[in-house]
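Sequence in, structure out. Go.
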Amino acid sequence: MKTPCIICVAITGSVPKTSHNPAVPVTVTQQIESTHAAFEAGAAIAHCHVRDAHENPTSDPGLFAKLKEGIEKHCPGMIIQLSTGGRSGAGLERGGMLPLCPDMASLSVGSNNFPTRVYENAPELIDWLASEMISYDIKPEIEAFDLSHIFQAKKMVMDGRLKGPPYVQFVMGVKNAMPADKEVFDFYVRTFHRLFGETAPWCAAGVGAHQIEVNEWAIAAGGHTRTGLEDNIKLDKTTLAPSNAALVERTVELCKRYDRPVASSAAAREILGLKSHPASS
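Output:
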């Protein structure tokens, strides 16, 4: 049997608002409900951001705590991954939610350009976030927006700043960063396996209209993939996605096309080397 495909659902992010798509969940209650539907549709990981009362991104640990509690209650066993991304805060506040001890947290290990700004990740902040994740036994997901980030992850494993092998996600299609290009994708996969071994798990995410094609590339290549309203608010050029669950369902159909079983939360935990959860299945 082929390796089950882990589907991560990025439920909210920092950019899309309800004015862009009414289905974007911005309150904690909406996020819990949307995550539950995506979990039922086949998502094993919830990648989480939180918003303030004006839909603006924040790193508020209190909101993260309520969201984590709700997902644990309504999506038993689902892997909870909290974002330490730079749109939600500055400096050490980006890691203020890590004492909540989620299963995973995102970690950007280098800087790059975004559409209208520099996504800055200073070396000292990267090292502090990585050390906090080790302290709280949190598995990082390395968000690779550039080739150098994959090599930096390898260096951090070699010198003990990360526990290896890491789970690396190729983020493709962000304007001014890594393009969604199939030859580039294939090179990134080969490079990852050369650095971390043929059996190390990896993931890929496509932004905007590139979401579905990057989903397909990753599934076909034996990797794992991410979908959700954070990255893409449409089903096609003219149709807004009605929910996170709808995007997960579309990804599940791709798994069927390539004869990839969809990983349960228990299978995903085993693949990623996470502690088992009594309620996962």
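Check: Helices lie at 28-41, 61-74, 123-135, 147-158, 182-196, 211-220, 244-257, 265-272. DSSP finds eight helices and twelve strands in the chain.
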